[in-house]
Amino acid sequence: MSAQANTSTLYTHMTIITLNGKREILLDGAILVTGTRISAIGKNETLTKSRLPLDTIIAPFEGRIVIPGLINTYSNLAQSLLRGLVEDLPLHSWVYDAIWPLEASYDVDDRFENVVRVVGES
Questions:
Q1: Would you call 105 helix, strand, or coil by DSSP?
Q2: CATH no. of 8-66
Q3: What are the DSSP calls for 37-95, one per residue?
Q4: For 115, which of 34, 68, 77, 100 could close a Cys bridge (C-beta 3.0–4.6 Å)?
Q5: In angstroms, how far is the first alpha carbon of the chain from the final one?
Q6: In this structure, is the dihedral angle defined by the CA atoms of residues 100, 106, 110 and 111, taken in order, positive or negative?
Q7: Three-state DSSP class for residue 117
Q8: Could you give the CA distance from residue 60 to residue 98 in angstroms, rounded to a whole number?
Q9: Hey, how many other C-beta atoms are within 10 angstroms of the C-beta on 62?
Q10: Closest among 71, 74, 28, 19 to 48, alpha carbons compared
């Protein structure tokens, strides 16, 4: 999302899970980010017609689901390149007999390269 303090970006046409008191889900939502902060969340129609800061960047997010403010601190980026490997195994065997032994063989450079490739896919 936007990094400069004076930059505004309006992310449009996404599904937003608000996690507010009503647990609303906006099916055609928009999020306005000013600098590094979320400054507005609402229906796409409402926010696109509102007074936006000059030079606001419009970024379509069709087909995406967003949970504003959620920071996911858990990921298996290093495992992502192993998707589809020995899928026919039960979960326990897949993890203990296939995935973890492969991960144990990674060095720091292998992990870094995996993360770069997986993040590049997104």
A1: coil
A2: 2.30.40.10
A3: EEEEEEEHHHHHHS-PPTTPEEEE-TT-EE-TT-------HHHHTTTTTTTTS-HHHII
A4: 77
A5: 14
A6: positive
A7: helix
A8: 39
A9: 9
A10: 28
Token output for 117: 């490739």
> Hey, where are the domains in the chain?
8-66, 77-121
Contacts 24+ apart (CB under 8 A), 103-112: 103/78, 103/79, 106/78, 111/78
Q: What's the DSSP call for residue 114? A: H
Per-residue pLDDT of 64-87, as tens digits, reads 999 988 777 777 777 777 888 888
Question: Considering only CA atoms, which of 99, 101, 80 is closest in space to residue 90?
Answer: 99
- Environment class of residue 59 by beta-carbon count within 10 Å: exposed (0-12), middle (13-18) or buried (19+)? middle
